[in-house]
Amino acid sequence: MALPRAPLSLRARLVGVVVLLVAAALAVSGVLATSLLEDYLLQQVDRQLEQVAANPVLADQALGGGGPDGGPNRAGAPGSRPPLPTDYYVRLYDASGAIVASSASSFSDSTPDIPASAVVAGPPRQPFTVGSTSGSATWRVAVTPLQGGSLVVARDLTDIDQISTRLALLLFGVGVVALGLAAAGALLLVRRSLRPLADVEVAAAAIAAGDLSRRVPDADERTEVGRMSAALNTMLARLQDAFESREIALAEARASEQRMRAFVADASHELRTPLTAVSGFAELYRQGAVAPDEIGHTFDRIEGEAQRMSTLVADLLLLARLDQQRPIERTSVDLLAQAALDIAAARAAHPDRDITLQALPGDQAPIVTGDEHRLSQVLRNLLTNALRYSSGPVQVQVGIEAADRQAVMRVVDHGPGVPDDLKSAVFDRFFRADAARSRAAGGSGLGLSIVAAIVAAHDGAVRVVDTPGGGATFEVMLPLAAQL
């Protein structure tokens, strides 16, 4: 079975079409030029034949030596007119079509093959072409009716045939050269015109290999290939954006799933601890293993664990609501006044601790727009964290200032601080630098994550930096009310 032929490339097809069109044009023009030249030369011969037939002296000279057998031509006698050229042939026919006389015997080996019907008396007719009695020569014949017969003047067309043949050969040679030049020019032009398509092919191969940043080289947008390249680059840019967005979405989805799993695991662990304690104390009491004087203490423990679970559940619900990005209540909040209230409450709860408030100078009042209760919770959580990690007489400082079109709240402690490798993780949910210490102090690991979520809901930012001399400083930046 014959193998299927490989399809021709676009370049080969375009060059082939151009070559075929040029060849057809050259062939048509060559045939037309040859035909026009032949027609012109035949018209000249026809006029010459008519002139000879209309001149009885020339005809008589041609017939002067002969009868049917063609005697010698006496036209060269002294005093006679110049004879006809030797490529003319003259015959005289009678009314019956019999040859009365013919021209010189130099044509005896090749004379025009004139049909009998052409010399019968009748109306004048146009010159016509006939073959020869022997050989391949052709003749142009003009028949002139006479009284009692007809005069036939013929001319050999060998020279005209040679001219036509030479012209055809010349046109063929010129056509071959022109066809070669046209093919070379078409190949160069097509190659140059299709070069952007080759660039598209290379770019497509690179993109298929994974290089989504690859682009097709720019071309002149006034051309079809240039417009195609521009459209393809636009499409590739959108595909890259879509692919990158998809990759980002997948990465975020995987990260979210991992966070959710970790969140569920941490929440389950945090809830299991107080639930185990409540269940254990209740079981001890049910079995009568609690002494009468310890019953009150046991119920205090149960109540404390229940309160711990309630706080944990409340924090989880708050984070869930913040994750849903529900609209928050927005009112004008004076951070300095609110901080004074929160610090007073903290001092009452921790009378043995030194908690100070400092209003730093600024060009505006530290007034922001937001949820007063949630912003208060931010400061309370930061104070709780600072007091938990800086025990004893260590001072906790709160600073409020308004500068650079934003309000800044700083909570400074002089505790152990936060290691550099943990600064980005302290706002993660259930994160504890010292899990045992935090749990013993009643921390759930959600306080700072709640701070970050509330601040983000207010279009702000929070960060932790080192306190000079040791400790941690938490900075909350919120846009001033005039900038919202």
Characterize this entry briefly.
With 484 residues, this protein is an alpha+beta fold. 51% of the residues lie in helices and 15% in strands.
What can you see in these coordinates?
This protein is α+β, with helices and mostly antiparallel strands and 484 residues long. It has 3 domains: 155 residues; 115 residues, Helix Hairpins, CATH 1.10.287.130; 156 residues, Histidine kinase-like ATPase, C-terminal domain (Heat Shock Protein 90). It has 10 helices and 12 strands. Strands 2-1-5-4-3 form a 5-stranded antiparallel sheet. A 5-stranded mixed sheet has the order 7-9-10-12-11. Strand 1 and strand 2 form a beta hairpin.
Distance between the termini: 80 Å
Q: Which range best describes the helical content: under 10%, 10-25%, 25-40%, 40-55%, 55-70% or over 70%? A: 40-55%
Basic shape: rod-shaped
Order of helices and strands: HHEEEEEHHHHEHEEHEEHHEE
Overall pLDDT level: 79
CATH architecture of the largest domain: 2-Layer Sandwich
Q: How many alpha or pi helices?
A: 10
Strand-pairing-aware structural class:
alpha+beta
> Any idea of the CATH class of the largest domain?
Alpha Beta
Low-confidence stretches: 65-82, 435-440
Strand content: 15-25%
Total discrete domains: 3
Q: What would you give as the CATH superfamily of the largest domain? A: Histidine kinase-like ATPase, C-terminal domain
